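Q: Sequence in, structure out?
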Amino acid sequence: MTDPTIKGIRMNAYQDLTIPGLALLALLALLVLVLLLALGAWLYRLWMSRRKRRIPRHWPIHARELLSEEELRVWRWLNTTFEGYHIMIKTPVTRFTKPNPTESGLFWYELLKGIYCTFTVCNEIGQVLGCVDVPRTFGASRKVRLLKENLLAQCGIGYTVVSPTLLPEPDAILQEFLGDEAARIRSAKREEAVVRMAKANLQQTLVVQRGRRKIKEPSMFGPETSSMPSHWNDSFLIQDNTRPAELR
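A: Exactly. Output:
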């Protein structure tokens, strides 16, 4: 038989070891539960991200106008003013600029990717000559406009803001974007207008002279007279005062 004293010592030792063990077991179970929840959340995010990348059968997107009414008015005016040039619509500034081969240049170039101008004027070889912005009620801030103005001026590209309700003089924007080329364009337009007017005057003069010539020139056959008799006697009709010939 076991001594009661030894049996009591064993029971006390068992109780002393059981309480910390249960606490450790509960802590481990809690850690496992937290890890399972974190794993489940990660798997759910992964599933959702893959689901979002899947191309939809029916796109939740519809077409819209490229220009507003105010922008369309300015675009038509630019096409008339810059005749022979190309007017690009809402082109990002990163399409016609590039960064310097330095870390800071690449950093600032990345920040410019969301900035564009309403219209970009370029020549026949694709060289950008100037940019035009049309202000909107909830448009770009003054800070962004100053940024574009300083950036484009540094790149040798003109920049201006045009209001659709107060269009500037064509010669002013031509001079700002084209410089000396603007004088040549104005001279060519004046010469073209003079030639067009001269052609119109010449055509009008020819029409008047032809009309006068038709009035003055007599007919080749003179007045409409005829020597033929107006009344023909029918020789097949027997007149009343004639007598029939005698047969012999």
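The CA atoms of residues 158 and 176 lie 7 Å apart.
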